[in-house]
Amino acid sequence: MSPHRLTRHRPARELPVSQQLSHLLNLFASGETVPTPSVPIPAAAVICVRDTPGGIQVFVTRQADAPGLIDKNRWAFPSAELHPEDIHHLPLAVWDAAKCARLLRKDNTTKALNYFATAARAALELLGVLLAEDVDGRIISSTDTPLWEDSRQKLVTGRARLGQLVAERDLKMRLDLLSPWMRWVNTPWQLRRHDTIFFICAVPHGQTVSFRSVNESWGGWMAPAKVLENADPEHAEYISAATRLVCESLARTPTVGSAMARVRDVSPILPEIVRHDDQWWVSLSDRADPSERGRIRDVGKVVTESDLEKSSGLFGAES
């Protein structure tokens, strides 16, 4: 398989690829290296949002500019790969696995729940945001205590699981505070691929985001339009195509309430790679470009490579 064969026609939209991916594509095209596409790794990304007098803001991170780091200076949203342990003995309130599966249009209720649970874990681990309610049904309004800092550290180091921490405190997860916004699958030409669902996260009243970086990355609140303004539109070094599409769609969303209430088309975006005049581009068809997505266009189930991958444990179970 050669990248040249993916060039068919001028698509509805093309975005530049990073220098790293461009280098790989040149190697593939020259025949020096043969691509061996991997099955995308399921992952969840968290887009915390808040209302301000100037409009909606998102919590975004920027990779540090340090030697040896991949994607230096790139804007992104916190994310984590799915772990089956995220849903072990996980107490739930309001939404159950079946509801998660309906929202993600999946047959496998266990994996659908895992996407939501991993997003909740990433919110707590990386941002200090807990999406849970107490025994009286009240949403937790503060995690700014030594107890929760200790719990957060246990999650990070793998000494505790999300369900364990929640159950020990007689809490239940509130996955309805997450709303699926976009699903992006990396192209087969990338060495490490992910099948990522981006979730909007309504930060509970009284809680504050406390970003924890593992490599001195920056994290802070910005308007989506400002993120796009700070990312060079002619280059992909500072913002991925997926992050760009998320920011574009949220830039036209007035409030957190409207973002959470909006029913999004979560059909997976499967970008292609095309080449024009020795320049590589990420290609999005009319249907793939989610810029104007605001309602569900299809109601059928969605299946991608990562959904078909058979693995042991929870992911093999169909409901």
UniProtKB/TrEMBL annotation:
Transmembrane segments: none annotated. GO terms for molecular function: hydrolase activity, acting on acid anhydrides, in phosphorus-containing anhydrides; metal ion binding. Gene3D superfamilies: Nucleoside Triphosphate Pyrophosphohydrolase. This is NUDIX hydrolase. The lineage of its organism: Bacteria, Bacillati, Actinomycetota, Actinomycetes, Micrococcales. Keywords: Hydrolase, Magnesium, Manganese, Metal-binding. Its cofactor is Mn(2+); Mg(2+).
